Input
Amino acid sequence: MRFLGLLCWFLTLGVLCPQPKVMAQDLKVLVLDALNGKPQAAVQVHYICTGKIPPTPSRSVKPVFTNSEGLATISNICSNEEEIELSIFAPEPKEQCGGTTSFTLKELLSVGIVSKPDSDGGIWCPTKVSKKLKPMPGQVIVFVKKPTWWQSHIAG
Output
């Protein structure tokens, strides 16, 4: 009986006491070379929140750079109603494969995202490396590569 009384007391205490708020998780952006899958360091990652809340100077974001493992960490400032759009600016001569990646926070945190390197909006890249990768919750994987001569001189 005493155990049951203590259990009820702890349960009541847990219900009546305010629970700590869940902290926003950091978003991880992994930048890989589309040809060989090697991590890319010193890549600028820009992001913007799109949706109901208009942009203000307090919500402006400085670019984040990838480390030697190709990872950039972004502290999320977007609300759940907004989409997050990423833009990748690799050091010369590489460029982002495919278009700008856009996703919801819920989608990212629950499943993760592997961008499509052959999508519209950027230089076309092979999908050999991207097909081998599986999305990880909280992480976006994007690809860069050096454009071919045709892409940089004729098509671009």
About this structure: The helical segments are 2-16, 105-110, 128-131, 149-155. The radius of gyration is 21 Å.
